[in-house]
Write a structure and sequence with these properties.
Layout lengths: L5 E3 L2 E3 L3 E3 L8 H8 L4 E3 L16 E4 L2 E4 L8 H8 L8 E5 L4 H14 L4 E6 L10 H4 L2 H14 L4 E5 L5 H11 L3 E4 L3 E4 L1 E2 L4 E2 L5 E5 L4 H12 L6 E4 L5 H10 L3 E4 L1 H5 L3 H16 L9 H5 L2
């Protein structure tokens, strides 16, 4: 028996560890490598026409994680769909989508549903903090976000997840999306931040600000998961600053059914293997499954 196996909206995961969007670029080879040990993988966010992104520097390594302003760089959807035909499907694939209108998202789902022969899911990027009119800005509009979910649920039989930001009114947004039919929510994306070069006196990132990820945002994301578990019925995927198996367990106990790993991959490509092995040891020592631990922090606090 695999104590880490979990079911997520019809997707069978061998463990609750999911590659977060944007970490491995748009290469299917990289996704195939991660899928050997991950429970699922999320692609880099893709749009209908593609996007060049911001000029370098786009990623900063600092003492508490990363700050990035890649700018949702991606190939056009039809090109990426061809790339994903070589995905070996060793773990469920979730395709991250971004756009500006409901029609954008409809075209994206139609493109990938018609191109890919295997079951997959979609993650709606409603939370990227540094592209105007998409991502975070879209998530600020509850009515528009709900309309997108409703349209997509009419178009695809594959599960639809929405990635929210801790900076949103995330409880209201999650409830609205749940009412619209979303299959699950992911929280949180990166949070806005910046760094200044003290020698030049100028911002380091070409876009001035970017998204802060890594251990610095973990307590914030953890609280978001804890809050949402009390408010919604659909599964929650926790994301933000997870670097150890203890971090994973905190998110699970707060109410996450699965977690996403992002910045930690920057430091170790073996992170999924090491987390998986540590979680197996923990669950066997406790004589439980990972699913037994979901939300137990709530019962212990009354």
């Amino acid at each position: 028996m695999n104590p880490l196996q979990t079911e997520l909206c019809g997707l069978e995961l061998k463990n609750p560890l999911i590659l977060a969007s944007g970490i491995m670029g748009s290469s299917v080879h990289s996704l195939n490598l991660i899928a050997r040990d991950a429970g699922a993988v999320v692609t880099k966010s893709v749009s209908v026409e593609g996007r060049e992104g911001y000029r370098n520097p786009t990623v900063i390594n600092w003492k508490c994680g990363l700050i990035n302003a890649v700018g949702l760089a991606s190939p056009p959807a039809f090109e990426f769909a061809e790339e994903l035909k070589d995905y070996r499907n060793e773990a469920p694939l979730i395709i991250s989508l971004y756009g500006y209108t409901p029609d954008d998202f409809i075209m994206l789902v139609e493109t990938f549903d018609s191109a890919l022969p295997y079951p997959h899911g979609y993650e709606l990027n409603l939370s990227c903090p540094h592209v105007k009119g998409a991502g975070f800005d879209l998530g600020m509009d509850l009515e528009l976000s709900s309309e997108i979910v409703e349209e997509l649920k009419r178009k695809t039989s594959n599960p639809v997840f929405a990635k929210l930001s801790a900076l949103h009114d995330y409880i209201s947004l999650a409830k609205a999306l749940e009412d619209a039919g979303v299959d699950g929510v992911v929280i949180s994306n990166t949070l806005r931040g910046m760094k200044i070069d003290i020698l030049s006196g100028k911002p380091v990132l070409s876009n001035i600000s970017g998204g802060v990820s890594g251990p610095a945002i973990k307590p914030i994301a953890l609280k978001c998961v804890y809050d949402l578990y009390k408010e919604i019925e659909v599964p929650i995927i926790g994301c933000g600053g997870i670097t150890s198996f203890e971090d994973v367990l905190e998110f699970i106990m707060a109410g996450a059914k699965a977690v996403q790993i992002g910045s930690a991959v920057y430091y170790s490509r073996r992170i999924f293997y090491s987390l998986k092995e540590s979680l197996i040891a923990f669950t066997r020592a406790r004589d439980c499954t990972i699913s037994d631990l979901v939300g137990i922090a709530h019962s212990s606090t009354g």
